[in-house]
Specification:
By secondary structure, this protein is an alpha/beta fold. The protein has helices at residues 19-32, 51-64, 78-90, 104-110, 148-165, 167-175, 177-181, 185-205, 220-229, 237-254, 260-272, 284-293, 321-331, and strands at 9-15, 36-42, 71-76, 97-101, 115-120, 123-130, 135-136, 304-309, 312-316. The chain is built from 13 helices and nine strands.
Length: 333
């Protein structure tokens, strides 16, 4: 951070599960570098991605005397990164932002790209901004503190990056799946580095999602709808993305766009990584309504990312809503 010209105060925003694990180490490192440090924890979980929690953080920053040159450090998973980034983007019209992701999902997705947001009762990520971090610091040793479920959800994003842009990465994940599940260091670092490089390249070419970056939305239209319909309590984000990718593959197959072999290989790898095929019970109508409210809707049409082949995706806005409805109904218990 010093090398980037940052100095003065650093305000660490974490959650009540991660801060006890890594807070002292991060705070100590910052103090050794000459920063004054204060830290705060929000409740762990998606419900903290709210305007109410953001407002509490604004109050905390004001009470701490945070100035425009002060850095906000997000220590945690995707929820913390999104929330802290949203606060950094809006407090005093923007203060320096640093990401220290501790979950696999945050390392390969949330910390890369500059999307920061909070949820509304009507849907996920409906209030947000594009705000790039000054620094992303990844330590893969933190993955060993994750529960099996929270580790597993992160593999969905690596699989997605291979499916949409890099068939070689997908084949690597297929070949090394067992080693990745054991978190063998060399293989894990290689997989994460390749996945991060893919997303960073896409974002560098299309930061504001006006073109190429749209293909990163393979799975999210249904994933976000399921998260909303289950009130963010039944599915982790990566689990929802995995289900969304399975649905998108079936939509592509019914449109005679996605080959059956691609669907089979996708589902086979998701199964090997222990990612779900179906959600728990959910309200289908609530999911459909959430899908139509999604921020990716343009002129009333949902923009679907579908696969033509492994490593090659296309954007379609002509998918009949009835087809998406049929696929969702098939998921319903």
């Amino acid at each position: 951070m010093r090398a980037l010209g940052l100095s003065g105060a650093a305000y660490v925003i974490s959650d009540d599960q991660v801060l006890p694990l890594y807070g002292a180490r991060v705070e100590g490192s910052l103090r050794e570098a000459g920063f004054s440090v204060a830290a705060v924890a929000v409740p762990a979980g998606e419900t903290s991605k709210s305007l109410a929690e953001a407002s509490r953080l604004y109050d905390w920053l004001v009470a701490q005397g945070a100035e425009r040159g002060s850095a906000i450090v997000a220590l945690g998973g995707g929820v913390v990164g999104d929330l802290a980034g949203f606060v950094a983007a809006s407090y005093l019209r923007g203060v320096p932002f640093v990401q220290v992701p501790t979950s696999l999902l945050a390392m390969v997705d949330a910390s890369v790209g500059g999307k920061v947001a909070v949820d509304l009762p009507q849907g996920k990520n409906l209030v947000g901004a594009f705000y790039q971090p000054r620094l992303v610091a990844i330590d893969v040793s933190t993955l060993r503190s994750l529960s099996p479920r929270h580790l597993t959800e992160g593999w969905a994003e690596l699989v997605k990056h291979g499916l949409i842009l890099d068939a070689d990465l997908f084949a690597f994940l297929e070949a090394k799946a067992d080693a990745l599940l054991r978190l063998e260091p060399d293989v894990t670092v290689q997989a994460i580095a390749r996945s991060v490089a893919i997303k960073a390249r896409v974002v560098s070419e299309d930061e504001k999602e006006t073109g190429l970056r749209t293909i990163l939305n393979y799975g999210p239209p249904i994933a976000h709808a399921l998260e909303t319909a289950t009130e963010y309590s039944a599915l982790l984000h990566g689990e929802a993305v995995a289900i969304g990718m399975r649905c998108a593959a079936r939509i592509g197959q019914r449109l005679e766009l996605t080959p059956a072999e691609v669907v089979a290989r996708q589902d086979g790898l998701l199964d090997r990584m222990h990612l779900p095929a179906k959600p728990p019970r959910f309200n289908v109508e609530a999911a459909l309504e959430a899908m139509q409210r999604d921020k990716k809707v343009r002129a009333g049409a949902i923009r679907w990312v579908l696969l033509e082949a492994l490593g090659r995706a296309v954007v379609r806005d002509d998918v009949p809503f009835s087809l998406a409805r049929d696929v969702l109904l098939e998921l319903s218990p």
